[in-house]
Design a protein that fits this description.
This protein has four helices and six strands. With 117 residues, the chain is an alpha/beta fold. It has one domain: Transcription Regulator spoIIAA. Strands 1-2-4-6 form a four-stranded mixed beta sheet, with helices on one face. Helix 1 crosses helix 2 and helix 2 runs parallel beside helix 3. The longest helix is centred in the middle third of the chain and has 17 residues. The radius of gyration is 14 Å and the shape is globular. About 4% of the residues have low confidence.
């Protein structure tokens, strides 16, 4: 019973932030919400964990309009987790806000954002 309640709570948090998996052309794509601030990352983390459990990490971050260090840390952790599991991580889009924050923190290379449109 506790696990089911926890999954419902995670789903509600994800819906509130706008973090959602999207099916496109047979692939699972994680569309990040506009806000990746500390108050939002728990919900986004839930969706990223589900994506990783499915063996996929394809992220569209083109809508990110606000991100702080907690958001960057979450993306770094997801990318590292994917690498450790042998899951290829793909960026399908990255906003200028995300690129600027990653660059300011010195982690743009670690996130492989330099070549993302």
């Amino acid at each position: 019973m506790g696990e089911r309640k926890s999954r419902r709570k995670s789903r509600r948090r994800a819906e509130r932030t706008g973090a959602q998996p999207v099916k496109a052309a047979g692939a699972s794509i994680m569309a990040l919400p506009a806000s990746m601030l500390i108050r939002d990352v728990a919900a986004v983390a839930d969706v990223l964990r589900a994506s990783l459990a499915a063996g996929v990490l394809a992220v569209d971050a083109s809508a990110v309009a606000a991100i702080d260090t907690a958001g960057i840390q979450l993306l770094l952790a997801a990318e590292r987790s994917a690498r450790e599991r042998g899951i290829p991580a793909r960026w399908l889009g990255a906003s200028e806000t995300l690129k600027a924050a990653a660059s300011a923190l010195g982690v743009a290379d670690a996130l492989s954002l330099e070549a993302v449109a």
